[in-house]
Design a protein that fits this description.
homodimer, about 260 residues, alpha/beta, eight-stranded mixed beta sheet, elongated
Chain lengths: ~260, ~260
Amino acid sequence: MNIVIIGTGNVATITGRLILQSGHDIIEVYGRNETAALALAQSLEANAVTHTKAITKEADLYIIAVSDDAIKKIVSGLFVKDKIIVHTSGAVSKEVLKEASINYGVLYPLQSLRKEMIHLPVIPLFIDGSDDEVKSTLLSFASTLSNIVQEANDLQRLKLHIAAVFSSNFTNHLYALTETFCKHEQIDFKALYPLISETAERLKQYSPAQMQTGPAIREDRSTIEKHLEILNAYPHLKNIYTTLSENIRSNAEPT
Amino acid sequence: MNIVIIGTGNVATITGRLILQSGHDIIEVYGRNETAALALAQSLEANAVTHTKAITKEADLYIIAVSDDAIKKIVSGLFVKDKIIVHTSGAVSKEVLKEASINYGVLYPLQSLRKEMIHLPVIPLFIDGSDDEVKSTLLSFASTLSNIVQEANDLQRLKLHIAAVFSSNFTNHLYALTETFCKHEQIDFKALYPLISETAERLKQYSPAQMQTGPAIREDRSTIEKHLEILNAYPHLKNIYTTLSENIRSNAEPT
């Protein structure tokens, strides 16, 4: 496959590396910022383009990996006729792409991708397409990139995106809050690494609902009171502590 | 060291296994419930006792691994003179033990321990003692059990416990909520495993505050609105989503 990567951010960079490693040819990288476009193009053994009008029409696949808001702007400046064009977003409908080609779809990486990554993690890919032929082409392309490839339509992808927000963005925020708390209180955040890993890895064997521990699930008021007394100095943390503890205590089904 | 384990729950079971593996002798296991006491005693190659009065006075170390509320009850029925007695709790002062011996302290495992565990995870141990000699004895004992051994007084241990609640109990609850959401919406929770692992492992290399991704940190209102529309069917999730998103957006320092 001859591929054009549109974008120079985290998703463009890591997706590009994955594609190159899997033996495909990236022929062009588009980026508004010339320095960024040149840098990524060079690392992906491709040419750099800085105007949408200059993007080649001769590729097999165009991958738009830009912020959700920027997708529409790209599409309005790009027409590739019957070549396949995809975006990589969890929350944007594939239909925004139909101005750019009659064949369009989605290649959604369900992973938190950062340019800094040295080793690529496992990246599950969710595929959608404007018709069965496009889907089938994208499914076989994606299976050269990842062992975990599934189909997901717009609504399913949006739900996966919500699940990712809860289990990754929000957990990362809790890690960040914990790190700052530890710094303020001069306790060793690193000592929590084994606990954090164990909690994340255990869910592959046991349902997390069955593995809940801590004062909230035990309804251990005396410990909770001791915690809240210290958290009086941290109103944001206290608010989150109370909200999540009540939710755990009520053993809330999310309905 | 000749050791008595008091308790038959998760912490008693896993601590006992760790101690046995490290080449110490567990001479007795105490549990009120005879079946549980016999089962754990057998697996730890020890004798079972079901009355505190019957616990031997001849051990070097007594480890109370019972629920916080039960520690006092145990202590009131046990006097071991100058033998070292410890509890394993993050939130209970070591001073509750002084009725039972003049030498007392804490052996706090900063890990989420479950009987079901087949492979023992890395278990950081935090030590406290009634005097320097007790501390020193416990530090060298703990270093036979774990590569991560530190001292922590009552207040430091309580703060570590709070940090553990945020980074383990609360993240596990978010995993549990996500799993239930996925079941209800018939999307594949397992597809999130690589993302969850990556988020947890990455903090060992990069500060989580620097690695925050998702719609809240991008202030991506349009995606947040799409999420909230679906979460209207899940009031508990919507409440948590809103609380944590606002907290991320305000990029709140925990002060």
